[in-house]
Amino acid sequence: MKSALTRYRVMAYVVGVLLVVLTLVAMPLKYLADQPILVGIIGPVHGFLYMVYLLVTLDLATRSRWSIGYTLLVMLAGTVPFLSFVAEHKVTRRVRERLQVPV
C-alpha cells in the first residue's frame, strides 16, 4: 500500500501543478495576450495525466477500502486548482494512520 500511496502523491502534485499553471498562466496568456500556445501544450498534458491520476487514485482507494463517495471526492480534487494539494495531505494522513506510520 505504501507504493500505491507514493504513486498517488506524485500524481496529485503533478496534476495540481499543471492545473495551477494552466489556470493562472496559460489561460490568461491565451485570453489576455492572444498567446494560445501554452494552453495547447499544457491542456492535453494535464488531461492525459489527470486520467493517470484517476487510475492511481482508484488503485489506492481499492487497496484502502474507501467508500465510493470519498473516492469520487478525491478524484474530483484534480479538477479544482490547489484542491489536489489539500486532498493529497488529507489522503496521506488517512492512509498513514491506517498503516500506523508516523506522520
Explain this structure to me?
It is a single chain. This protein is an all-alpha fold. The longest helix has 31 residues.
Summarize this structure briefly:
With 103 residues, the protein is an all-alpha fold. It has helices spanning 2-32, 37-64, 68-76, 83-99.
Task: Please supply descriptive tags for the structure shown above.
mainly alpha; 103 residues; 0% strand; single chain
**Unreliable segments of 5+ consecutive residues:** none
Question: Beta-sheet strand percentage?
Answer: under 5%
Q: Number of helix segments? A: 4
Order of SSEs: HHHH
Q: C-alpha Rg, in Å?
A: 15 Å
Strand count, sense and barrel status of the largest sheet are: none
Mean pLDDT, all residues: 93
N-to-C CA distance: 16 Å
What's the total count of β strands? Answer: 0
Classify the secondary structure makeup into a structural class: mainly alpha
The shape, in one word, is elongated
How much helix, percentage-wise, in residues?
over 70%
What order do the helices and strands come in, and which of them pair?
Blueprint lengths: L1 H31 L4 H28 L3 H9 L6 H17 L4
Helix pairs in contact: 1-2, 1-4
